[in-house]
Amino acid sequence: MENANSLFHPWMKQNDFQGKKITDADGIYIWIDGKKCFDMASQSINVNIGHRNSEVIRAIQEQCEKLPYIYSGFSNPIMDEAARDVLGVLPNIYKKVYFTNSGSEANENAIKLARMYTGKQKIFSSYNSYHGSTIGAGNLTGDQRRLACEPGQVGFIKFNFPDKYHSKGQFRSDKEMSNFYLDLLREQIIDEGQNNIAAIFLEPIIGGNGVIIPPDNYLEGIREICNEFKILMVCDEVMTGWGRTGKWFAFEHWDIKPDIITTSKGMTSSYVAFGVVVVNEHIAKYFDNHVLMCGSTNYAHLLGCAATVASIKVYKKLNLIENSELLGKLLNVELNKMKSKYHSIGDIRCKGLFAAIEFKDNVMGKRDSVNIAYLINLLEEKGFWTLGRRNILMIAPPLIINREQLLESLNILDSVLEDLYMKGSKPKLAVDESIRA
């Protein structure tokens, strides 16, 4: 094609792009170059309500015909409705929202809000996290995708988030592990100057780096530390929000309420690119008499607001949060059956319809299991598409999936793994160096 090479493709060498095209999508399915596949990653773990939902599409069309855009100095009923609906699925301590165009932009503005509200500058975030690819969000990010933003900006500090599977410590319980990492964080806060720290950013469940679920009491401990040192707790729910983990938001699995929440992805299932920062009543009240130094041309875009309102109606109408919780239990059982069957699976991590299969490393530090890119291609040939990175395979289908569809898709996964490990096929051992998520 004449213009085949005119478009940049993110997170890869451009010559590595395979040229595959999604030619259609519907519900939980996508068609890749004409081949029907289960979309077992909801694209970028964002199309939670499934593809081509007619109600959301109609709402966007109607808003576009009525009034597609206004300057942010004005308001409009659909903006107010979207704000109320977002707050309506959260605990009542949250009082105001700031709409953005992406999750990265939500985190950028959360940084600014935290600094303006507290008057402090330093921001803590964890290694092995991902918060976005823009400069500020990239400085928050702890994994290797931050490297494009380095040398980093002054004031961004990294801490270690507990990872039960990879921990080198011998902990007798979750509580012991949590206390160890909380003590390390406390010491680091004191060393950095407790009066200089505006916020601690974290993913309640680390998403793009493999569904890393914190040990019991850890997030409650973070909340206590933030209260003690008057530091804001910011939960990045860009990937984990909107029913993905079996709750509206992942932080609800624990006895915590962050001061600020950022989210995007499932809010509109990316029918329109949209995100939001949500703040508690204290932060909201502060800006009643202080200038909010945030804004953009496409702030609170009316099409994004319409998509948000319609999407929340779909979540409620189809009971998608409950479906994620219920089928998440089935997903966890079935994946652990595979772990028992295939020795190369090292760990299964699952919360709702959000799961990761991590393949083992051997003692030499090399993956003794299949290259993830190779495995993804084998799965795609059988009608199962998903994402993965390093030695981790992600499983995160649209929340509209039903029991029969979930079991059918997992049978494909099981049969491909059986061909690789039980029938004498020789898996490719080369490590996938892709940083895509």
Report on the structure:
With about 425 residues, the protein is of the alpha/beta class. It folds into 2 domains: about 15-50 and about 320-420, Aspartate Aminotransferase, domain 1 (Alpha-Beta Complex); about 55-315, Aspartate Aminotransferase, domain 2, CATH 3.40.640.10. It is about 35% helix and about 15% strand. The strands form 3 sheets. A 7-stranded mixed beta sheet has the order 4-10-9-8-7-5-6, sandwiched between helices. Strands 1-2-3-13 form a 4-stranded mixed beta sheet. Strands 11-12-15-14 form a 4-stranded antiparallel beta sheet, with helices on one face. Strand 14 and strand 15 form a beta hairpin. The model is unreliable at about 365-370 and about 430-435 (pLDDT under 50).
